[in-house]
Structure formats: structure tokens, C-alpha cells
Amino acid sequence: MISAHRRLASPRATGSPTRRPVAALLDRSSVDDLVEQLDAARDVLAGAFARTTQPLSGISPEAAAAGVAAVDLDRPLDGVGDVLDEVRRVYLDHAVWFHHPRYQAHLNCPVALPAVLGDVIAVAVNSSLDTWDQSGPATHMERHLLAWTAGRLGLPASADGIFTTGGTQSNLHALLLARGEALAAGADPARLRIVTSSDAHFSSRKAAMVLGLGEDAVVETAVDAAGRMDVEDLDAVLARLRTEGLVPMAVVATAGTTDRGCIDPLSSVARACRRHEVWLHVDAAYGGGLVTSRRRRHLLTGVERADSVTVDFHKTFFQPVACSAVLVADRATLRHVTHHAAYLNPSSDVAEDIPNQVDKSLQTTRRFDALKLWTTLRTLGPDRVGELLDTVIDLAAEVRGDLVGDPDFRVVTEGDLSTVLFRFVESDVDDERLDAVNEQARRRLYATGLGAVARTRLGGRTWLKLTLLNPATTLADVQQVLDLVRGHARAALAHPDEEVA
Ligand SMILES: *Cc1c(COP(=O)(O)O)cnc(C)c1O
């Protein structure tokens, strides 16, 4: 391990027969260098994983910034070994490790092992998925995966879609298509509205901003006690908008809300959308992985009636960032993002049936992000992916049950997926003070690096959140984090002035 390292650190001292300088580009002549460098990177990675005993180092933003600022980008280092050393020192030693069982904060997953393999190959070959003449079979592999996903969702044979960089882009893409349909039907752009629940992800609001509708074009429905869209209210909102001369261009239902992990009643929402003739987009960025679950696939019932669906493979399919897709029930709607450029994808290509994915994408040059999903499914198979997801959903349910009996915490008892919302409480302390104490507990824990939890607001109060996406995390790991939170909360109550970063 160390020898490979040294060899790369000073290539001239190695006695290498060719004594060639480090190659600038990857090609046939430098492929041996690539292999050698992958070996060295492997050692650095293996070392980092071996040394990782907690999810983060607890480094402060100031210290991290100083470490990075000290690097003079105008003065390259002497060899790949030194570069890897610097990467280790500046980045890996202080990275946030999603594979660590006590990382329980956000919607980040440990990555599927076969996905790394796929991504390394994708990066080295560097196919670009915009046109067939830059990608060859990669385009067909992407299409095969999109068709597979559409099939699992139960979308009709007319379905299609495209890979994107994430749920935010997938939602934007879907809403752009919905707007295109509304405008094609003669709607006044100033009167367009997007309807979603008050628990929905903020990316619909961002999409409204990007689409020139303004954030105010998003109208919220109420949710029930568990945080699922209230369909009666949806019905009322849609009727009211029409009465006011406004045009609901899309309803965004959420299959797995980011905080409470609840799935909107998709079948009833779909019925309301049909009745009011509104485009239904299902944001399944979080819950999309359920299509692989034998035990919980039924939670997505109704999604097959959507006009468009967002699925984030980089959440519940355990894929490295970025890996997401937007699917549409009617592939003809993708025309709203089509532009034919003479140099790239001329309309004559359509007549010749040349498959140019750029015709359906907001991006032009685009990574082969589908390959890592491909290698994952071909190695593990969908059932194993579903079992991994079921494991973390089971754990979340177990944790919620456990917290109900704990006098130090209040807990949100309902949830379809793998989040747990909880809050440290103390009987004689008011809610406002407890808000601050919970936030302090989160920060203090983060500063120790021993665990990571998130925070959010619900019902006007601050709650802490576990997002469990690591199948290796056990109930004992969660209890350890909760005990740490408890300790920090008590300390924050006793010594409120001891601020930490
Ligand atoms: C995570 C999430 C998004 C945003 O997805 P990114 O991949 O982070 O862009 C959108 N909607 C929901 C419900 C999410 O949980």
C-alpha cells in the first residue's frame, strides 16, 4: 500500500523503465498510468474507510476553509502521490461519511458497490448522452432503464423519460412540460398555478421561479394530521382556482415527503386531477425506490395514473450523486423541451429514426449516469435493492415505536418511509426555549463528529430528524445517537451560553 504511494509520489525515483512524466490525458498510451493511479486511489480510499470511526471529523467551517485556501492552484504538486495525499488531508480526513451508521441526517445513502464500478467506467469513457453519435449503445442502455422504470411504475406503453441531475431538475422538467401543455391549450401564462401540499418539497417553488411564473404561482393544499395531501381540500382549491379564472396547470403530489416521509393518497389525487383535467406530477424523489420493494410496492398505488413522475435513484436506489429521472406517461409531451440544432440533432435525424436523447432533455452534454444504475441492477437485482430499502423503513418504524416510551422525547409516530421526527422535551421548559435547545443539541453533536441528525420546522416548532438510509445502521446505533442528542440537549439547557459552531 505504502510502496505504491511512494512510487507515485516521486515517479523519477522509481526506476520505471520509461521514466515518462505523468500523462496529461487518458488514452491508449496512458492506460497503464490509469491502472497504477487507480491502485493508488484504491489505497487512499481503503485507508480512509479503515480510519473512519465516526461520520465526520467535527471540523469547523473556518478550519475547513483555511485548509482549502492554503492550496495554491497555480503551483501543481510533484506527482499523483502528493496529490492524493493533499486530497486526503484537505478533503477525506474531514469528509461527511454517509456509509457510517451514525450518519442519520439527510437523504444521503451509502452507495451500492456495483454503482462505483459503473461510474468509474462511465467517467473514463466519457460518453455524452445528448446524441446517438456521441454515445452509441449508452443511449439504448439509458432508454432500457427508463423503460424499466416506467414499467415498474405501471405507466402506459406510451411512456418515456430522461435521466436528470436530481429531483429538483426532474420536477422542473415535469412542470415545464405541464406548462407547455397548458399553453398549447390556450392558457394565459399569467394565470397558471401549480397546486401542491404544504408538506411538499420546495423545488416546485423553485421551478415556478425558473419557469417565470413566480413563487406565488404555487398554491398549497392542507394536509391531514400525518402530513398527507388533503384530497377534499385539493378538490376545493382546484374548483376555487377555476372560479377565480385561474388555470391549475399541474398538481404535484408527493410520494414520500422529505420531512415526514408520508405518501400522498395518490389514487384519490389522481381522480381529482382527472375530474378537473389537471396534469398530475408525482414527486417520488424519495419514495420511488419502493418500486423495487416486494413488501411495500403497494404504497405507490395510483402512481401509474400520473402524467409525470420524478424518481431519485441517488436516494432510495443507493446510487452515487447524480442519478435521477423524470418519466412521462405520454412521450409526445416531451416535445416541449425539443429544439433541433443543425450542428447536433437536426430534425432530419428524426425522420431517420436516430435516437438523440437531447431532444428530450434540458441538458445538452450529459453524463452516462445510467451506467451505475445498470451495473447495480445487473449485480444485485431489483429485489436486493428493495430489501435494502425495506430494512431502513423497518428500522425507522422500530425507532418511532421506541421513542414513544421515552419521556425525554416527543416523536411523530406516523411515516411511510425512513425518517423519524423527534424533539427533546422537558416539562417545565417552554416551547420557544426547547426550540433553541434542540437546535443547540444538533449543533453540539455535529461539532463532536460522533453523529449527525438534521432539523426542520413542523407546526411552528423545531424538530430534529433522522433520515435512515443506511441498511447497516442498527437500532443500537440510533439509540447511541439519541443518547448523544439527549446529553447535548441537557447540557444546552444547563449552559445555554456555551455556543458551538
Ligand atoms: C430530495 C427531494 C427532492 C430534490 O431532489 P434533489 O435530488 O436533491 O434535487 C425533491 N423532492 C423530494 C420529495 C425530495 O425528497
Structure notes:
It is a single chain. This protein has 501 residues and is α/β, with parallel strands linked by helices. It has a domain at 120-380: Type I PLP-dependent aspartate aminotransferase-like (Major domain) (Aspartate Aminotransferase, domain 2, 3-Layer(aba) Sandwich), CATH 3.40.640. Helices cover 42% and strands 12% of the residues. The protein is globular. The chain starts with a helix and ends in a 7-residue tail after the last helix. The model is unreliable at 1-19 (pLDDT under 50). It binds pyridoxal-5'-phosphate. Pyridoxal-5'-phosphate binds next to helix 7. It holds the Pfam family Pyridoxal_deC.
Low-confidence stretches: 1-19
CATH superfamily of the domain at 120-380: Type I PLP-dependent aspartate aminotransferase-like (Major domain)
- Bound chemical compounds: pyridoxal-5'-phosphate
Proportion in β-strands: 5-15%
Morphology call: globular
- Topology order in helix (H) and strand (E) letters: HHHHHHEHEHEHEHEEHEHHEEHEEH
What summary fits the major beta sheet? 7 strands, mixed
Number of strands: 11
Task: Output the structural class.
Answer: alpha/beta
Portion in helices: 40-55%
The whole-angstrom Rg is: 25 Å
